[in-house]
Amino acid sequence: MAGKHIISALVENRPGVLSHIAGLFASRGFNIDSLAVGETETPELSRITVVVRGDAGILEQVRKQLAKVIDVIRVTELSSVDHVERDLMLINVNAPAGKRSEILEVTEVFRGKIVDIGAKHVMIEISGPENKIEAFIELMRPYGIREMVRTGRVALMRGGDGANRRRQKSADEEQ
C-alpha cells in the first residue's frame, strides 16, 4: 500500500552530505514530499527528516540506499514506530479592522502565535501535525492569504535518545 513514510537519518555534520543524499533520491526517481535538516544535540551530527510517498518496496529501497552512504550513521522509518512529528508554518493573512478579531480567535483556538501585525495584515506562526496546518490554511482562505511558507516535517521517536546511542557505542568500542 502506498502512503507517506517519515524517514529519519542521523548523519555526520559535514559539507556535502545533504547534497549527496538529495542526489541519491533524485537519481533513483524518489520524490521528496518534505525535507528538513538540522544539527542535533551533538554538533558533529545532523538529523535529516524526509517524507516520501510509496509502497513498502519503495520504502525498503530508500532505506537501503541511505544505509549505503558513508556519512549516514542510522536510518529509522518513523511512520512505523511511536513518534512525534511537527510542521511549522508562517502565514500572512489579510486582516481588515472588522475581521481582525475573528482571525485572532481562530489563531488562538489553533494555539498559533501572531508574529507580525500591520495595518491590513497579520502574520501567524502555527506548528503541529500536517492535518492541523491544512485545517488552519482552509480557515484562513476566506480572509485572503497573502503569502505562506512551511517547513519540512521534523519528527523524533518517542523515548529515543538519538546521538546518545552513538556516543555510548563509541565509548564501548574504545574499551
Task: Draw up the topology in text.
Blueprint: E1 3-12, H1 17-28, E2 32-39, E3 45-54, H2 56-68, E4 72-77, E5 83-94, H3 100-109, E6 113-117, E7 121-128, H4 130-140, E8 145-150, E9 154-157, H5 163-174
Antiparallel strand pairs: 1-3, 1-4, 2-3, 5-7, 5-8, 5-9, 6-7
Structural notes for this entry:
- The protein has helices spanning about 15-30, 55-70, 100-110, 130-140, 165-175; strands at about 5-10, 30-40, 45-55, 70-75, 85-95, 115, 120-130, 145-150, 155.
- The chain is elongated.
- Strand 6 and strand 7 (about 120-130) form a beta hairpin.
- The chain is about 35% helix and about 40% strand.
Radius of gyration: 19 Å
Order of helix and strand elements from N to C terminus = EHEEHEEHEEHEEH
Query: What is the global morphology?
Result: elongated
Strand portion, in percent?
Answer: 35-45%
Helix content: 25-40%
- Tell me the number of strands: 9
The largest sheet is: 5 strands, antiparallel
Q: What low-confidence regions span 5 or more consecutive residues with pLDDT below 50? A: 163-175
The N- and C-terminal alpha carbons lie at a distance of: 45 Å
Q: What is the average of the pLDDT values?
A: 87
Total helical segments: 5
SS-based class: alpha+beta
